[in-house]
Design brief:
Strand order of the largest sheet: 6-7-8-9
Distance between the termini: 29 Å
Number of helices: 5
Number of domains: 2
Radius of gyration: 16 Å
Low-confidence stretches: 129-133
CATH architecture of the largest domain: 2-Layer Sandwich
Largest sheet: 4 strands, antiparallel
Shape: globular
CATH topology of the largest domain: Enolase-like, domain 1
Bound molecules: flavin-adenine dinucleotide
């Protein structure tokens, strides 16, 4: 996990799940110890918040409350298994079965894994029907998949991850 997270390949699986689980990363280096939220860690293409001389020394994930569920789904690049689009969703339901909290991490789509805040905000207090695409400015584009296709996959897999997470939470 540490190697994958520190490497920050834009199509790696762990970053999306770490974002959805709101993980905290412990970092050690010449200037001592510090902690960084996953949402502040993945900066750009293969670039993290790690500074020269620093290493990732720990990963903290809070135990989810009752009525929580999570899921990670992806479209695989057929040779490597890397994500053309991968979405991790973590959901906690309220007594009415609506979303009390939602966290969505997306990988494979943009230069760095990101939290889909617009989707999260749209869903809090609601059921699954409100899912929308998020405001990514730059979609990854290469010989495996166009930016448009990755954007489409991000929407489809966000819906699938959220459906599965909500089913598990219930
Ligand atoms: C054929 C193939 C298919 C793959 N498919 C997938 C896939 O489907 N999904 C996926 O997510 N990944 C995939 N990978 C990537 C693979 O999982 C990575 O090699 C792995 O994620 C990196 O972890 P590692 O432990 O090997 O890291 P390493 O190779 O040991 O490290 C990666 C980099 O991070 C640095 N590093 C390691 N640990 C730390 C640390 N604690 N703090 C700071 N820096 C550190 C290293 O110096 C190095 O620069 C694939 C790789 C290959 C070759």
């Amino acid at each position: 996990m540490g190697g994958s997270i520190a490497h920050a390949d834009p199509a790696a699986d762990w970053p999306a799940t770490m974002l959805a689980l709101d993980a905290q990363f412990d970092i050690g280096g010449p200037d001592g110890e510090r902690a960084v939220a996953a949402s502040d860690f993945f900066v750009d293409l293969f670039i993290t918040d790690l500074q020269p001389g620093e290493v990732l020394t720990g990963i903290r994930i809070a135990t989810p409350p009752e009525n929580s569920g999570g899921a990670y789904v992806k479209m695989r690049q057929s040779a490597s298994g890397f994500a053309l689009a991968g979405v991790a969703a973590q959901v906690t339901l309220d007594d009415a079965g609506n979303c009390a909290s939602v966290a969505v991490g997306v990988t494979g789509v943009a230069p760095a894994a990101y939290r889909a805040h617009a989707v999260e905000d749209a869903l809090v207090g609601q059921g699954i029907d409100a899912v929308a695409a998020d405001g990514v400015e730059e979609f990854q584009e290469d010989h495996h998949a166009s930016g448009d296709y990755r954007a489409h996959l991000a929407r489809v897999f966000t819906q699938r991850a959220l459906s599965q997470a909500i089913e598990r939470a219930a």
